[in-house]
Amino acid sequence: MYTRCSVIGVEKEKLLKRALEVVGKAKDEGVTLRLIGGAAIASIAPRGAELFPRSYKDADYFGLSSQRKEIISVMESLGMEQNKRFNALHGSIRLMFYDPVLETTVDVFLDEFMMCHKLVLKDRLPIYYPTIPPSDLLLTKMQIINFTENDKKDVAALLYDFEVGDRDYDKTLDSNYIADLLSNDWGFYKTYTINHDRMLEFLRESPHAEVIVPKLQKLREKIEAHPKSMKWKMRAKIGERVKWYEEPEEVNTNFKDAGSGT
After folding, report:
1. How much is the pLDDT for 62?
2. What is the mean pLDDT of residues 64-72?
3. Residue 6 falls within a domain, yes or no?
4. What DSSP designation does 131 have?
5. CA 230, 243, 63 angle in degrees (round to 5)?
6. In whole angstroms, what is the distance from residue 261 CA to residue 200 CA?
7. Which domain holds residue 169?
């Protein structure tokens, strides 16, 4: 389960340099590793990230459980120290390291991204580099119930730089993929639409609203028009009477307390 912790911020340029070094090293070694989170959005949406500046705490990654050993090898070759106790307990879904360059804890999520809703990403990674596909980046943010100021800035930055299209490529994100996924999961759809309205409010007085809001609206129209599955319709009848999202678990991300195994 994806969680967050509050730590001292990292300077953006230093963070991105290190993050791209990591995914580049993995690529050279034949290991599939992609950036995820705010650092990922800053790396592929630089103009938007400048217009909506935020603080960054670390760089997190996404990989394949089938390459767990290879990922550990890559990270250690870059001077990172693995949290052996944590990785022994959770290594099928998540790995934890300490990066002495950034002086932060680093997470590597494997196969699935789970916060308030689930995204299965293991077959999506070949589509895009150096991050997970931009449509998935958007969904990792729009699935968050406790939608923070940084999350809103990330969404705004991504949609400032990216167009809404029919595939994840270059500066385009795949609206068909988003609409299809949300039309099969009412709970995810519900959270997304809540955050859509929050984004409109966030952008209400922004000088950049005229660039971003039409893209938000285009996505919403696409989602609403997409045929809904029987599963979606049955869950929609229950509505908000039953909680439609997961509460992210609190995981101890203090490296020393969790045990480095050294």
Report:
1. 98
2. 97
3. no
4. B
5. 80
6. 47
7. 12-258
Residue 53 forms part of a structural domain: yes
Residue 2 lies in a domain: no
Burial class (CB in 10 A: 0-12, 13-18, 19+), 174: buried
Q: What is the CA radius of gyration of the chain?
A: 18
Give the model's pLDDT for residue 10.
81
Asked if 75 and 106 count as a contact pair (C-beta separation under 8 A), the reply is yes
For residue 3, being part of any structural domain is answered with: no
**Among candidates 154, 147, 209, which has minimal Cα distance to 35?**
154
Which pLDDT does position 256 carry in this prediction? 46
The pLDDT value recorded for residue 131 is 98
Strand extents, DSSP E, 127-224: 163-165, 172-174
Condensed to tens digits (0 to 9), the pLDDT of residues 153-186 reads 999 999 999 999 999 999 999 999 999 999 999 9
Residue 3 has pLDDT above 80, yes or no: no
DSSP reduced 3-state for 84: helix
Tokens of 147: 């939608």
What's the domain count of the chain?
Answer: 1
